[in-house]
Amino acid sequence: MFSHNPFAELSASVSPSVMQAYVVVMAVLVAGGTLFDIVHKKSAKYFFDNWRDSKSKAKQRISSGEMMSIAVQIAMVDVMASGEFCNARRRIAHLLTMYGFVIYVVTTVIMVFAYPTPASPTPAALTTLWYIGALMVCLGGYWFWFFIRVDVASEGHSPFRLTKADLFVVSLLVSVTLGVAWAAMGGGVGFLFWLYILATIVLFGGVPWSKFAHMFFKPAAAFEKRISRADGTAENLPTQTRDDPAQQERHSMELLRGAPMDMGLGIKREVPRHY
């Protein structure tokens, strides 16, 4: 199963040019949906307004070398290692899903455009990577959905409870799961194939109403956050140290103004399950 290209098998019923056009349309939907999301939610306007405000209040100038170092940290820590997650299980699940999705999409594009028919044999390593990527998405996604989600793990809601915010995760898992099931059944045009196509259209066409676009916003938000820490504005929030007398005076509780940073962290020793 892991060595056969389901899209090459599909070419017996669907022209490779149609498959390629479908992939291009999905890419256009993502790009268009992201732009619509930016304009509708005014994300770009907020980002640049906040950037200008931060620059005007900066307490120290950031050199080009420091800017480059921050950009590298964003790429290595915040993007590639999902450094924003403190919970180890959440981070692992996110990394599995993220890297699995990247592998799945890239190998799909390569197989559809470079090896669309049995006449051009697909390297076994490529098809194996396609299955591995899909299974990584399923492992990370279902682990998150049933065991890690806050409303399930900490608030006691049913894992089958759906809200609008779940559109991206659900459509991703349904699309990839159907894709694996369709490929395992030998490919071709059938009931599973059309379900797979429909779920994929919902995934890529639902960008304006799902959290799909957040993968493009998060690096920009992380960059802005690190810049604000470096130039001293700290997003107009108190810094994380109480050693500075000015920060001690800003604390709302007089009892904690001179307290050590690790005071009160005992609450983190227990997972909140008091529902």
Structure write-up:
The radius of gyration is 23 Å and the shape is elongated. The chain has 2 domains: 6-237, no CATH class; 242-275, no CATH class. It has 11 helices and no strands. The mean pLDDT is 84. It starts with 5 loop residues before the first helix and ends in a 25-residue tail after the last helix. The chain is 63% helix and 0% strand. With 275 residues, the protein is mainly alpha-helical. Helix 2 runs parallel beside helix 9, helix 3 (43-56) runs parallel beside helix 10 (214-230) and helix 8 (167-184) packs antiparallel against helix 9 (191-205).
Topology (SSEs and partners):
Blueprint: H1 6-10, H2 16-41, H3 43-56, H4 64-79, H5 88-114, H6 124-148, H7 150-153, H8 167-184, H9 191-205, H10 214-230, H11 245-250
Helix pairs in contact: 2-9, 3-10, 4-10, 5-6, 6-8, 8-9
Shape: elongated
Largest sheet: none
Report mean pLDDT, rounded to a whole number.
84
Through-space gap between termini: 44 Å
Compressed to H and E, one letter per element, the order equals: HHHHHHHHHHH
How many E strands?
A: 0
Q: What structural class is derived from the secondary structure elements?
A: mainly alpha
Helix fraction bin: 55-70%
pLDDT under 50 segments (min length 5)? none
Radius of gyration (Å): 23 Å
Strand content: under 5%
Q: How many structurally independent domains?
A: 2
Structure annotation, total helices: 11
